[in-house]
């Protein structure tokens, strides 16, 4: 018998909802960092949230908003730590304002921290829509289910993938092209830890890949560029891929 996909009501599934989530996400970021904007647009942002939940057939909208709004202070605290850590880590960074306004990795982290809170409140779909909006905008794909500690810095945010069950602790820096993923992609493993754990004070350089739910990268370690790691690494080590560069004199 031919399998037929279930029909989805256009009331709950449409490009209009996607547009609404993108506008809502932008306004949330503005409210988070600009008190004047929050005073002027706070009610409008709240109403957008209510309309999105209504489209998703979610009740008790007021309770969801109160819990979400009460988390803003802690989210802002974490983002300020992220920004200071970025400023202190990146020799090209000249000011906190530059981090806030010009670093796509910081924007991706900000959206992650907001969407992670919504996921903790068990709101379906919306957190993933927010994270995919940030993904398209920044090139950084952070699943809202990941657990990320304080002082997280993404340098040159392009091609980053951070899977759903990833755990990243404090003072961690990652560069472009880094994948924190799973080895197995079977649906039956969905409820298991499929992505790695990154301990405190770790740096992961460009195009490194770390795979597997049992993999732990120890404290104070450095994962070099282009390395693929599929087993745990102890603390205080440097992992590099030994490449031999061949230098040939140019002939005329």
From TrEMBL:
EC number: 2.3.1.30
Tagged with keyword Iron-sulfur: no
Catalyses which reaction(s): L-serine + acetyl-CoA = O-acetyl-L-serine + CoA
Pfam families: Hexapep
Keyword Acyltransferase among UniProt keywords: yes
UniProt entry keywords in alphabetical sequence: Acyltransferase, Amino-acid biosynthesis, Transferase
EC class (word): transferase
PANTHER family: SERINE ACETYLTRANSFERASE
Family per record: Belongs to the transferase hexapeptide repeat family.
Protein name, UniProt field: serine O-acetyltransferase
Species: Polaribacter ponticola
Upper classification of the organism: Bacteria, Pseudomonadati, Bacteroidota, Flavobacteriia, Flavobacteriales
